[in-house]
Specification:
This protein has 251 residues and is α/β, with parallel strands linked by helices. 39% of the residues lie in helices and 24% in strands. It has one domain (5-92, 158-246): P-loop containing nucleotide triphosphate hydrolases (Rossmann fold), CATH 3.40.50.300. The chain has helices spanning 43-50, 75-81, 97-107, 113-126, 142-155, 172-187, 199-205, 223-228, 233-246; strands at residues 5-14, 17-27, 32-36, 58-63, 66-67, 82-85, 160-164, 192-195, 208-213, 216-221. The structure holds adenosine-5'-triphosphate and magnesium ion. Magnesium ion is lined by residues 43-44, 164.
């Protein structure tokens, strides 16, 4: 069987700067892959290549056996299959929570108003925001905004959701409500590729953790391997720095 996502020796440069230098990884359905690494190591670039927000220079990416990086790939179709949750939420300020979630259903999926509304409500309920459907982003906390962002991604029934530092813009006391929703998704079998500094989430929810440094995978394996028995100095040093800053990852 094909992996759900396959990155095969992906290279990406900006000018002279090699940002991804031969990144390969496979994810199966239901996997939660957490990617960590220093600022500038290529984490966001890696995610953006998967839904073709960024074009790669060499290598291949496959989703469910289809070559994402083929010139004739329907990028709109790809982005229906690959949801994305952004650090800064990317909500439309002039639309309610409900309006933000129904937008893609109406425009991209072509659903009628009533059907889109019903589906959007289902996913707002799923993230615990059924009672905030009519609120505008300005009336929501950061944690609530990000949960709307997650509901919006879920509503498209994606095969995979990419998360790029979904809690980095949040006040510390609001992080938990978002990681809790993400944990629920993970245990519900959603396939997720997550860049995050939340090491408690990584330890508890990740099936695999990848440490990316200077565009290369330094180490990849079960979270316990990286946290507790890494033989690589770079991994140990990075994780001890990040856990000191973002809370420990003890079970
Ligand atoms: N559109 C772009 N044009 C030019 N350089 C870029 C572009 N996007 C990213 N870069 C560069 O590529 C490198 C990797 O960037 P990327 O955003 O992928 O890193 P990151 O690991 O996500 O970092 P952070 O933790 O700060 O979010 C950086 O040096 C960045 O300046
Ligand atoms: Mg980034």
């Amino acid at each position: 069987m094909n992996p759900l996502l396959r990155l095969d020796s992906v290279y990406k440069s900006y000018g002279d700067e090699e940002v991804l230098r031969g990144v390969s990884l496979d994810m199966e359905v239901g996997d939660v892959e957490v990617v960590v690494g220093p600022s500038g190591s290529g984490k966001s670039t890696l995610l953006r290549c998967v839904n073709r927000l960024t074009e790669i220079d060499d290598g291949d990416i496959y989703l469910d056996g289809d070559r994402v990086t083929a010139p004739d790939t329907d990028v709109n179709e790809l982005r229906r299959d690959v949801g994305m949750v952004f650090q800064d939420f990317n909500l439309f300020a002039h639309k309610t929570a409900l309006g933000n979630v129904t937008l893609g259903l109406r425009r991209v999926r072509g659903m009628g108003k009533a059907e889109a509304r019903e589906k959007a409500m289902e996913h707002l309920d799923q993230v615990g925001l059924g009672d905030q459907a009519d609120s505008y982003p300005a009336e929501l906390s950061g944690g609530q905004k990000q949960r709307v962002g997650i509901a919006r991604a879920l509503a498209m029934d994606p095969k995979l959701i990419l998360f790029d530092e979904p809690t980095s813009a949040l006040d510390p006391e609001l992080i938990g409500e978002v990681t809790e929703v993400m944990r629920d998704l993970a245990s519900g079998g959603m396939t997720m590729l997550v860049v995050t500094h939340e090491m408690t989430f990584a330890r508890e929810a990740a099936s695999t953790m990848t440490f990316l440094d200077q565009g290369e995978i330094v180490e990849r394996g079960p979270p316990e391997q990286l946290f507790d028995r890494s033989e690589r100095k770079r991994t140990r040093e990075f994780l001890s720095r990040i856990t000191a800053r973002h809370g420990d990852a003890q079970p």
